[in-house]
Amino acid sequence: MSGGTSLLFRRKQLKQREQRMRKWAAVTDTNSIYKVEKFVDVGTDKASIIAFLKANDRSFFPPLSKRVKLEKYAEKLMKEAVLLIVKEPAAARLLAMLGFYCNAPQYNSAVITYLAVAPAARGKGIGKTLLRECIRYVRQFPGMQSIETRTWAGNHAAVKMYTSLGFKIVDRSFDRGEKEHSLELRLKLNGIHDGPHDGPTAFVEDQ
Q1: Is 114:207 a contact under the CB 8 Å cutoff?
Q2: For tag attachment on the chain, is the N or C end more exposed, with fewer CB atoms within 10 Å?
Q3: Spatial distance between the Cα atoms of 130 and 158, rounded to a whole number of angstroms
Q4: Is the peptide bond before 62 cis (omega within 30 degrees of 0)?
Q5: CA-CA distance, 184 to 150, in Å (whole number)?
Q6: Where is the N-acetyltransferase domain (predicted)?
Q7: The whole model's pTM is what?
Q8: Cα 40 to Cα 44: distance, rounded to the nearest angstrom
Q9: How far apart are alpha carbons 80 and 22 in whole angstroms?
């Protein structure tokens, strides 16, 4: 197989894999009263996604709105990412959302770029439920070797949650000002990827 043909074949495989991912059905965590759902239809409830981003903007350091336009970011998440959401059991209000990409083929990695739980819903294990579901989802695909994310060092609750599920801190970068720095965390799915990536970072927006 020539180099050009091989590249086209690889792209076809990646496209098929992404299509399978985006058809994933909603699931329920049997250990929780909260239903974890996959946001499927771009036009279904865009307003609630934007409202959630705005309501939780200052849960991030620096606020996400300082780095991206939230409306555009919502469109990007709904179009390109896998979005897992948790709604209030008796209403349609969003309580939590996790967004991740499975489109870093050069690393065979899934990348979590957004995870937030509404303040009133924190301390109930919802964030960990979403993260477990993300891990379960990514493990369905044999080629995926790791899951990665970034957060700031002072986000102790998130760091504790990630490390409790097997993520390791693999790199640090001082890109959030003088008083704070970023941590890169990675969960190895197949026993590889021990250090930071060589080459361009896969992270654009993060928590």
Answers
A1: yes
A2: N
A3: 12
A4: yes
A5: 5
A6: 40-190
A7: 0.72
A8: 8
A9: 9
Contacts by 75-80, CB closer than 8 A, 24 or more apart: 75/42, 75/46, 77/49, 77/113, 77/114, 78/39, 78/42, 78/46, 78/49, 79/42
Q: Walk me through the domains of the chain, giving residue ranges and CATH numbers.
A: 3-188 (3.40.630.30)
List the structure tokens of 106.
Answer: 């050069």
- The encoded tokens of residue 21 equal 């991912």
Strand order in the sheet with 109-117: 27-28, 35-38, 82-87, 94-104, 109-117, 146-152, 182-188, 168-173
Question: Phi first, then psi: what are they for 104, rounded to 5°?
Answer: -115, 65
- The rounded distance, in Å, linking the Cα atoms of 121 and 161 is 16
Report whether 71 contacts 57 (CB < 8 A). Answer: no
pLDDT tens for the 207 residues of the chain, in order: 555 555 565 556 556 555 544 443 333 333 344 556 665 443 447 888 899 999 998 888 878 888 889 999 998 988 888 899 888 877 678 899 999 998 655 668 899 999 999 998 999 999 999 999 999 989 888 788 999 999 988 889 999 999 999 999 998 877 666 677 889 999 999 644 444 443 333 333 444
Nearest to 100 by CA among 118, 116, 77: 77
From 172, 181, 128, select the one nearest 154 (Cα to Cα): 181
Residue 12 CB contacts under 8 Å (≥ 6 apart), including other chains:
none
Q: How many residues does the chain have?
A: 207
